[in-house]
Amino acid sequence: MFYLTANAMPAEKFGFKPTPAQQSFGERVLHVADVNVSMLQMLGGKTPPPKIDMKATSKADALKELQKATAYGTAVLKEFSLAQMMERIPAPEFMGPTASRLEIAYFLMTHTQDTYGQLVVYLRLSGITPPLSAQP
Description:
By secondary structure, the chain is mainly alpha-helical. The protein is built from 5 helices and 2 strands; from the N terminus they run H-H-H-H-E-E-H. Strand 1 and strand 2 form a beta hairpin.
């Protein structure tokens, strides 16, 4: 869903900012890729993390970075059993001293959904109906 929404923005509008103080559409896409990789590393998987190019500016490059993060997340999550997902591990400071792997994965889902909501606003301000809002 997030990729589909990110892909809906035309390439020439990937630099669109609703206001000068906000990140561009492309920067929001890269933000999700970066946060996902950073937090998935905390799970302690064996899959090596990709390097996310936070300076990517084109639509093609930003979507490529998002795909790298998604592939990494899929690989890391497949490494753990349900019992291992329930184990508590050191957590990012904002989550407390420890969290289960599952809690961290859940945070990533909600964070991505929150950013999806932001992308929807960027699309609508650009005169684009978000793909999941389009009626058949």
